[in-house]
Amino acid sequence: MATKLLVFSGKRKSGKDHVTDLLQARLGTKVSCIVRLSGPLKQQFAQNHGLDLNLLLGTGPYKEQFRSQMIQWGEAQRRSDPGFFCRLATRDATQPVWLVSDARRISDLAWFQTQYPAQSRFIRVQCSDQTRTSRGWSFTAGVDDAESECGLDSGVEWDWIISNEGDPQDLEDQLRPVIDLALKAGSEPGPNQD
Ligand SMILES: Nc1ncnc2c1ncn2[C@@H]1O[C@H](COP(=O)(O)OP(=O)(O)OP(=O)(O)O)[C@@H](O)[C@H]1O
Ligand SMILES: C[C@@](O)(CCOP(=O)(O)O)CC(=O)O
User: Which residues bind ATP (predicted)?
Assistant: First the structure.
C-alpha cells in the first residue's frame, strides 16, 4: 500500500520520464517505484503485433509509428473499463512512494483520486513547443489534437506545475518540495491520511 502517489501528466516530450527518473534517482528504489500506465498497454500491444516492447517503452522514434494504433486500442479497452490500465500498472507496486509517470485522461486522475484520495498528488510537467521540438517532437494530427495529449489541458487543479525547459538547477529547485514530501512519506511506517 502506497503512502504517497505522485501522479504526473504532460504532453509528449515535456519530460515526464526524465522528471520521474530523476525523482526515483533521488528517492531510491527502496522508497519509490515508477508506475507507467502505458506499460501494460504497450506490453499487450507488442505481444499482439509482434513488436519490440523495449523500444515501445523507450524514448526514441520507434514507438511513434504505432502511437495512433496504440491509442485506439487502449481507448477501446478503457471504454469498457476506465480503470483497466491503472489497476494493471499498479498491481505489483510495493514501495511506499509511487511515481505515476503518464496520466493522460480525466478518468486516470479520477481513478487515483477515488482509490487513494488522501495519498494522491497531481503534477503537470510542461515546456514550450520549441523545447519539445528540440527533443524530437513534431505535431501529428490525430495524436497532438486528441484526448491522449489534450485530455488534461484544462479543468484540473494541479498540486504542482513544473516548468521543464532544460535548466538542471531550475528543475531541481522546482522539484525540491516534491522530493521533501516523498522523502517524508517514504520514512513513514504505513499509509497516512495527509
Ligand atoms: N530537463 C531535461 N534535461 C535534459 N534532457 C531532457 C530534460 N527533459 C527531457 N529531456 C530529454 O528529452 C527527451 C524527451 O523526454 P521524456 O522522454 O522524459 O519526455 P516524455 O514527456 O516522457 O515524452 P513521451 O510522452 O514522448 O514519452 C528525452 O530524451 C529526455 O532525456
Ligand atoms: C498509447 C499511449 O499509452 C502511448 C504512451 O506512450 P509514451 O508515454 O508517450 O511513451 C498513449 C495513450 O494511452 O493515449
Answer: 11-17, 135, 174
Residue 76 forms part of a structural domain: no
- Ligand 1 lined by 42 (C-beta under 6 Å): no
In a domain, 66, yes or no: no
- CB-ligand 1 contact for 9 (6 Å cutoff): no
Strand 120-126 versus strand 97-103 pairing type: unpaired
Predicted confidence (pLDDT) at residue 192 exceeds the cutoff of 60: no
CATH assignment of the domain containing 134: 3.40.50.300
Give mean pLDDT, residues 38-58: 96
Pocket flag, ligand 1, residue 37 (CB < 6 Å):
no
Flag whether the ipTM exceeds 0.95: yes
pLDDT(193) > 50: no
The reply to whether ligand 2 has any atom less than 6 angstroms from the CB of 125 is: no
Nearest bound ligand to CA 67?
2
- CA-based nearest residue to 43, from 34, 35, 33, 51: 51
Quote the domain boundaries for residue 112: 4-42+82-186
Q: Report the domain count for the chain.
A: 1
State the pLDDT at residue 94.
93
Query: Would the pLDDT of 194 be above 50?
Result: no
Query: Span 2-27, mean pLDDT?
Result: 96
Is 11 flagged in the annotation as binding? yes
How far does the chain reach from its first CA to its final CA, in angstroms? 15
Show Cβ contacts of residue 118 under 8 Å, excluding neighbours closer than 6 positions: 191, 192, 193, 194
- Whether residue 26 is annotated as binding a ligand: the answer is no
